[in-house]
Amino acid sequence: MGHFSEWFSGRVFQFVHGNNLVYNTCWEDPRIDKQALHLTPDDNLLVITSAGCNALSYALTGLNHVYAVDMNPRQNALLELKISGIRNLDYETFFQLFGNGRLTGVKSIYHAKLRKDISAYSRKYWDKKIGRYFDSKRKSFYFHGTTGTFARLINSIIDRSKMRSDVHDILNAKSISEQREIWDRLRKKLWSRLVRFLINRDTTLSLLGVPRAQRKQIETQYDGGVVKFVQDCLDAVFGTLPVQDNYFWRLYATGSYTQSCCPEYLERNNFEALKSGLVNRITAHTDTVEGFLRKNDVRISRFVLLDHMDWLSHHLYNALVSEWDAILLRAAPQCRILWRSGGLRTEYINTVPVNFQGRKTTLNEILTFDTDKAQELHQLDRVHTYGSFCIADLTTALPR
Fold first, then answer.
1. I need a labelling partner for 150 at 20 to 30 A (CA). Which of 14, 139, 231, 303 fits?
2. Closest Cα partner for 342 from 207, 230, 191, 195?
3. pTM score, whole prediction
């Protein structure tokens, strides 16, 4: 039965990720990334696209270039739509589209102003989806896609369990102490048997982009398993971290941003900076990380790999090895690499065999980890749903 469960959950995960727009927003905090990356005008950065929010955030630093790479062409289509919107819309219209997730007359605006600046695949995709996802008479865009399906489910539970007023109060709390008081009241209502059941299901986790490999990491490394892990995450988010600028959880609880609580690209001044030219420093590429690096002779000084190595390490270990060989092939001197994991530790990274400077070695011999800084930043992560955050520097030379 265990083998069937693992096979079935894997099929569900592959179906969800292979046939849908999975992420309608990035679920990684770029504020801590930028503190870890120390970006300069000379840096080229590779990031897995996801919803493109963070690629836009990195571009705001004035770095040389952002290469946004994703296997799922729908994710790149979303980033392309955002880039076209920045180039061709005024701020108010753009915020209605991506801040509110709805726009009156979106089909005509798309055909008149946005369609011309996106790729052929993205045109085909948005020709079909733009009205369904963004029309003002429909649910917010942020209730679409697979993570949006989960957000709709959470909002249904909030409303049926009569928690909406408490959610409103905590999102508008003025202090940590006020948050904590409201959260103590809210969490008693939230953790019903139904919610515990849903959080503990592989199908639910697949909607959030969490593969079974990550669930296993949590279950083996975290006392109390998945449900306790999520409970502790939410306790940190709403009980210890300021909620005023936590646009991640505001979006999932309401389906929209506000102009004072939103990703950086949706802030007026940042929108104008991107429109003035910084957005041109981003390009989207539909490929694997390895595929992009093999095909493009560019020096990358910063990598943001999100959490995809958890899945590779469990299902496609040889692909993980090949990916790291490609990373080392294109890595610039003083290269820094960030990644996240569902687990508390990523020991599997240490023994990955690689070729470096003409010698066979392992990653633990050529990477230096800043564990203190990573742990410090991880505690400040506004999302707080990952088990660990890693900052690694590539050595300049192997010891003789």
1. 303
2. 230
3. 0.91
